[in-house]
Amino acid sequence: MAAAAGAVGVALVGCESNDDGASAIPAADAAALRQVAGEALDLANRYDAAISQNPDQAAKLTPIRDAHREHAAAIGRSLDASVSAAAPTSSGSTGSGGAGSGGALKALATAEKAAAERAVAACVAVASHYAPLLGAVAAARASHAEVLQ
C-alpha cells in the first residue's frame, strides 16, 4: 500500500499546468480545483484524527494521508498559488465513525468514495488540461476507499 500511495504522489508531482501562468484560469475551473484541493486537506485532517485515535493503523493510514496532502499541493501548483488550509471542506463528519479502528476505516472509506465522486465531477467540468490532474486525484481516492474496505 505504501508503494502505491507513494507512486500516486510521485505521479501527481508532475501534474501541473504547463501554461506557465501566462493566461488566467477561468473562475469556474479555479473554483473546482480549489474545492478538490480543499477536500484533499479535509481528508488529510480526517486521517490525522483517525491515526491519533487508532495508532495501530498508522502504517496503513499515514501514506494515504500524505497522498492527500500532495494532491492539494499539486493542485496548488497548478493554480500557481498555495491552497490554504482553510479551503472549503466537505460537509461530512470528522469523527471516527464508531468505536475502534473498524469504524474509523469505514468512515474514511465512505468519505473517500464521496470525495472521489466529486473529483470525477470536477474532472469532467474543468478545461481538458486540468482533467489528468483531477482524474488522478479521483482514481487515488477510489483506490484509497478500496484499501480501507
List the helices and strands and how they pair.
Layout: H1 2-13, H2 27-53, H3 58-78, H4 100-125, H5 131-148
Helix pairs in contact: 1-3, 1-5, 2-3, 2-4, 3-5, 4-5
Short description:
This protein is an all-alpha fold and 149 residues long. The protein has helices at residues 2-13, 27-53, 58-78, 100-125, 131-148. Helix 1 packs parallel to helix 3 (58-78) and helix 2 (27-53) packs antiparallel against helix 4.
Estimate what percentage of residues fall within beta strands.
under 5%
The helix tally amounts to 5
Strand tally, please? 0
What oligomeric state best describes the polypeptide chains here?
Answer: single chain
Helix and strand element order: HHHHH
**Could you say which structural class the secondary elements and strand pairing correspond to?**
mainly alpha
N-end to C-end Cα span: 13 Å
* Radius of gyration over all CA atoms, rounded: 15 Å
User: What's the number of domains?
Assistant: 1
Biggest beta sheet summary: none
Give the overall pLDDT as a whole number: 81
| Approximate helicity band | 55-70%
From the spread of the alpha carbons, the general shape counts as elongated
Q: Would you identify the regions where 5 or more consecutive residues have pLDDT less than 50? A: 1-22, 84-98
